[in-house]
Amino acid sequence: MSALFPELERAVPSDDRPALRVGPDALTYAELARAAGALADRVGRVGGAGRVAVWATPTARTAVAVVAALLAGVPAVPLNPRTGERELAHILGDSAPDLVLAGPGDELPAGLAALPRIDVELTGPEAPPGAAPVDPETTALVVYTSGTTGPPKGVLLSHRAVAASLDALAEAWSWTADDVLVHALPLFHVHGLVLGILGPLRRGGEVRHLGAFSVEGVGRELGDGGTMLFGVPTMYHRIADALDGDDRLTKALAGARLLVSGSAALPVHDHERIAAATGRTVVERYGMSETLMNTSVRPGGGPRPGTVGTPLAGVDLRLVDEDGSELGEFDGETVGEVQVRGPNLFSGYLNRPDATAAAFDGDWFRTGDMAVREADGGVRLVGRKATDLIKSGGYKIGAGEIENALLDHPGVREAAVTGEPDPDLGERIVAWVVPQDRERPPSDEELAEHVAGLLAPHKRPRTVRYLDALPRNDMGKVLKKELSASG
Ligand code: MCA
Ligand code: AMP
To answer: CB 475: neighbour CB atoms within 10 A?
Structure first.
């Protein structure tokens, strides 16, 4: 049994504390212990299950599936159910799951249909068999994340890292069993799955997932007992847009104990609009798939738009200059790369010792994020080392993977991808395309569908610009700065 969920171990058949609610499905701690316990037993018994894929729809069954895999000590690979064929083939080839957990009605794509499948049920026997203890260094999750080039890499997150990061957040936010977390984040990334599902279950509190994001849903659940909200900046932007004239929403937000934003920078304008309407300051925290959470603004410490706060308990953080020397200045000006170390770090990239080695400077992980330190130690992120990483809607997307997908379209001769500021998405993916046939270029929609079908819908270009040639330097490298300037 994994030590991640003491409250599940403690749950007795009469434990009717609410654990999770997603759409129409609600489970108490006793019900979750039964359903996940029974499934854990089955997962553990499937011939040496090395890894288990989870068809990570925004449902209670996904939460049960992941908890079951963790209880059994079998690494779970959450899959975005909208993943396109090429990306799915890569993830399945790389992670080689022995079986797949899915909802009974879920239709799985061909790549998964060949695997043994267990349908996840929300019920189980009163006393499910207990699982053996799980070594904290065992991989809990394999989460796929984009790099600047090539296909996504599988980030190996141990039970130890998950527990350490969730406990550090609990301390920073005074997060307890009394909290009722509301969110609508996807369940195949760290934010929604680790913080948004495993977090409340580790504390013994409740999570209410909306199934799909809507401002109305946020207002409803926060107005009906929700104490915390987790979201990406795009969600807070949409909430800020809706606050004007919506008294119910304003009251619901004002009544929450904690509003937390992460995955990308929350623009000061949205901070200010929310604070002005509700009197509440949105708390920003900074993390990464590879590091889980690194820093957070502490609640009640006054408004700090623009900073992501100070390091969490157990996390060492330093800024490093171009030569790799540590910067000591807390002057709000000297920019360096953020490097971190601590028990929250991942164990490496699956099958990629080269990438793992390149990501570390000794035991320090190179985040690729550029920041300054304020006089009080607060970290202010100012950019990224790689311009080829785009954050859109809180998703990290590598320009290279989209360029490769575009080049596979028969109507595309050359392609380059950049990110442009977008008030809703933070950054919008822009494709610069030299068509094979200038007279008949493929349409914007056709290219968006092509990328969505191969990779994932959130990786599709939102804007396509057609050119006769891409600007290149003498070495043939595309000059992306010139592209953005010409937009
Ligand atoms: C539209 N759709 C399409 C196409 N056009 N599908 C296929 N082909 C097309 N051409 C569909 C989509 O599938 C979707 O369907 C709907 O249209 C809208 O999709 P989209 O435009 O992508 O939605 P959006 O409005 O842009 O979504 C905004 C969002 C979303 C809800 C904020 O971006 C989101 O959930 N972001 C969260 C990202 C996140 O969790 N990041 C964490 C990673 P349908 O409506 O049916 O779905 S970062 C992390 O974990 C670290 C550790 C951290 O720090 O947190
Ligand atoms: P991912 O690799 O998808 O987990 O995304 C991690 C990246 O998201 C980090 O390296 C940062 O660039 C960015 N990020 C996460 N939280 C914040 C935040 N609060 N403010 C700005 N950027 C953030």
So the answer is: 5
Task: Give 87-128 pLDDT, tens digit per residue.
Answer: 999 999 999 999 999 999 999 999 898 999 999 999 998 888
Indicate which residue's Cα is closest to atom 7 of ligand 2. Answer: 288
Which of 112, 146, 173 delimits the end of a domain?
Answer: 173
Enumerate the β-bridge partners of residue 181.
Answer: 207, 228
Inter-axis angle of helices 233-243 and 268-278, nearest 10: 40
The position carrying tokens 């070495």 is 475
Nearest residue to 294 via CA among 369, 209, 358, 214: 369
At 326, is the secondary structure helix, strand, or coil? strand
Q: Tell me: the pLDDT tens digits for 368-413?
A: 999 999 999 999 999 999 989 999 999 999 999 999 999 999 999 9
Nearest ligand to the C-alpha atom of residue 213: 1
Residue owning the nearest CA to atom 31 of ligand 1: 213
Cα 19 to the center of its chain, rounded Å = 21
Would you say residue 252 lies in a domain? no
- The whole-angstrom separation of Cα 172 and Cα 299 is 8
Write down the mean pLDDT value for the chain.
95
User: CATH no. for residue 481?
Assistant: 3.30.300.30
Q: Domain limits at 396?
A: 389-486
Residue 325 CB contacts under 8 Å (≥ 6 apart), including other chains? none
Instruction: List pocket residues of ligand 1, CB cut-off 6 Å.
Output: 82, 185-186, 189-192, 213, 232, 234-235, 262-263, 287-289, 393-395, 425, 448-449, 452, 457-458, 460
Nearest protein CA to atom 48 of ligand 1, as residue: 263
Residue type, 412: V
The ligand 2 site (C-beta within 6 Å) comprises 145, 190, 262-265, 284-289, 308, 367, 369, 381, 384, 391, 396
How is residue 397 written in tokens? 């997307």
Number of domains, the chain: 2
Last residue of a domain, one of 173, 199, 220: 173
Q: Which residues of the chain, if any, have pLDDT below 70?
A: 1, 47-49, 302-303, 486-487
> Which residue, by CA, sits nearest to atom 22 of ligand 1?
458
Atom of ligand 2 nearest to the CA of 262: 19
DSSP secondary structure letter of residue 352: -
CA distance 159 to 346: 10
pLDDT tens sequence across 27-40 = 999 999 999 999 99
What is the pLDDT at residue 308? 97
Residue 341 pLDDT: 98
The helix, strand and coil proportions of the chain, stated in percent and rounded to the nearest 5, come to 30, 25, 40
